[in-house]
Structures are given as C-alpha cells and as structure tokens.
Automatic annotation (TrEMBL):
The chain crosses the membrane at residues 54-75. This is Small integral membrane protein 1 (Vel blood group). InterPro entries: SMIM1. Keywords: Membrane, Transmembrane, Transmembrane helix. The keyword Transmembrane applies.
C-alpha cells in the first residue's frame, strides 16, 4: 500500500467553466508506512536481499518439483 504524494492538482477542463484546485494532504499513517518501507528495503536490497531472493527461488523450485512429482505419481499410477 503506497500513500499518495502530497501536492496540488489543478484542473481547468471542467464543464462548469470554473477552475478547480485540489489539495492532497499526506497520509496520516506515514510513520507506519515508513517503518514497513525500511523493512522492505532491508529485506529486498543488498546482500540480504539477494540471499532472500535466492532462498525464495530455491523454495519455490522444490515446492513445484514436489507438487509435480506427487501429481505425476497419481496420474501415471498403475491400476
């Protein structure tokens, strides 16, 4: 979940003929989002991030391998 950046949006293409200005405020949970952002950056970047991605890939490989093995066993099982 990403918070919308604060800023001003100006819209002059309105059917009413009036110009509109929308002001977006910063999200109130910005502090919580930044802590999740720090955890995400720590786990997904640098040497730790590479290690996590490699371990995740190996785990995914073995999960698919075992699922395929079990499925193949039951599909090709002799009657």
């Amino acid at each position: 979940m990403q918070s919308q950046p604060s800023g001003v949006h100006y819209c002059r293409w309105d059917d009413s003929g009036r110009d509109e200005v929308h002001v977006a405020a910063a999200a109130p949970m910005e502090e919580e989002a930044s802590s999740w952002g720090r955890i995400s950056r720590k786990l997904c970047s640098g040497k730790l991030g590479i290690t996590m991605k490699v371990l995740g890939g190996v785990a995914l490989f073995w999960a698919v391998f075992i699922l395929g093995y079990v499925t193949g066993y039951y599909v090709h099982k002799c009657k």
